[in-house]
Amino acid sequence: MKKSILLPSVLILQIAICNLQSVIVNAQTSIPAGTVSGTWTLAGSPYNIQGAIQIPNGDSLIIQPGVSVVFHDTYKLAV
Predict the structure, then answer these.
(1) Which residue of 2, 17, 29, 43 has the lowest C-beta tally within 10 Å?
(2) What is the DSSP letter of 72?
(3) 13, pLDDT greater than 50
(4) How far apart (Å, rounded) are the C-alpha atoms in residues 14 and 20?
(5) How many domains does the chain have?
(6) What average pLDDT does the structure give for the chain?
(7) 57 — phi, psi (to 5°)?
(8) 6-15, 33-42, 45-54, 68-77 — which is least confidently predicted?
(9) Which position has the higher pLDDT, 5 or 54?
(10) DSSP 15-69
(11) What are the distances in angstroms from CA 46 to CA 1, 57, 71?
(12) Is 4 helix (H, G, I), strand (E, B) or coil?
């Protein structure tokens, strides 16, 4: 009888893990060349840099802990 209770719980946990993995894998943000500012969050990670970017004077860019920033060539980030 314990097996019949445990099996649905394990199945639900496996489905939840698969759904979480698909959300994590599919989350990404493409950043074209130009100016950037604001906050880059874990929900939008990884941030794929597609050109040279800069933070304008007087603005700021906050990159939250755990966020991945991937430069897809030898682009610069000017601050």
Answers:
(1) 2
(2) S
(3) no
(4) 10
(5) 1
(6) 81
(7) -55, 135
(8) 6-15
(9) 54
(10) HHHHHHHHHHHH--EEE-SEE--EEE-GGG-SEEE-S-EEPPTT--EEE-TT--E
(11) 45, 25, 10
(12) helix
Residue 21's pLDDT is what? 47
SS3 71: strand
What type of residue sits at position 48? N
State the Cα–Cα distance between residues 49 and 69, nearest whole angstrom: 7
Two tokens, residue 65:
């802990």
Report the pLDDT averaged over residues 59-79: 96
For 37-68, b/e burial (b = at least 16 CB within 10 A) is eeebeeeebebebeeebbeeeeeebeeeeebe
pTM for the model: 0.66
